[in-house]
Write a structure and sequence with these properties.
Number of strands: 15
Helix content: 25-40%
Structural class: alpha/beta
Order of helices and strands: HEHHEEHHEEHEEEHEEEHEEEHE
Strand content: 15-25%
Length: about 250
């Protein structure tokens, strides 16, 4: 099979399945693993796909924004481990901003009974925080149906009145060039304002968000520490480590 034909088959498989493992490419093309790895590298350089741990996937569109339900299912075990590690950085007496998102909400069981104060713009977070006996403040604004996040002028005005020891932020894309991004400009503005008012910011992300770029940038890579998992290749993280600290949760 010619290289061009293999490349077309690789892209067709990705369009059909979304994410494909290297062994699946090998089986479908009858090419060697080394050949497939070379093909994936060439296609990634041409910005046709994104390499991930053990395979490849297509890039998300800039305005794609999965719902809470869709995000909850995806990489749930990985997110829980990342959240557990992130929660370990919260100390007694901290004032914390907890962003809306499926990674940040997973932190709450690990914060139970800690003597802390939490401010959140996540509708899903509220009852879990209260049940965990954590003093909780909620920003105003209106609630987006997809992500269940409070956004808008009232939310910003509330955040501006607080100062945080630590902020824990969710993200849709992380890129060395484009920084931290999310599809909705209003949510990006919330994240940006919370980070400005925090002594230390942690961005929680599973491995699939690296290399993705969404519509709205809210910070540079160096503006926050990254909490991720061992599913992200260490070699890939090398350039990110030159700009910021990366904490890695074992799976």
């Amino acid at each position: 099979m010619l290289t061009l034909e293999r490349h077309q088959m690789i892209l067709s498989l990705l369009k059909e399945r979304g994410t494909v493992k290297i062994q699946e490419f090998v089986d479908e093309t009858n090419a060697s693993e080394s050949t497939i790895r070379r093909d994936l590298t060439e296609l990634e350089q041409a910005k046709k796909l994104k390499r991930i741990h053990g395979g490849a996937t297509l890039f998300q569109k800039k305005l794609d924004e999965p719902t809470v339900e869709e995000k909850t299912i995806k990489n749930s075990h990985e997110k829980r481990k990342i959240a557990e590690l992130a929660a370990s950085f919260v100390e007694e007496g901290d004032c914390v901003f907890l962003d809306a998102g499926t990674s940040t909400v997973e932190m709450i069981p690990f914060l139970k009974d800690k003597d802390i104060v939490v401010v959140t713009n996540g509708l899903t977070n509220i009852s879990l925080l209260i049940d965990s006996r954590i003093e909780t403040h909620v920003v105003g604004g209106y609630v987006k149906s997809g992500t269940r996040a409070f956004v808008g002028r009232s939310a910003i005005q509330t955040i501006e009145s607080f100062r945080f020891d630590k902020a824990f932020i969710g993200v849709n894309g992380i890129s060395l060039h484009d920084g931290y991004t999310t599809p909705d400009p209003e949510e990006a503005f919330i994240k940006e304002n919370a980070m400005k008012r925090s002594r230390q910011t942690y961005v929680l992300t599973d491995h699939s968000k690296f290399g993705e770029v969404s519509f709205s940038k809210f910070a540079n890579v160096e503006d926050a520490m990254i909490v991720t998992s061992t599913l992200l290749d260490e070699e890939y993280m090398r350039d990110f480590r030159k700009k910021t600290t990366i904490e890695v949760a074992s799976l």
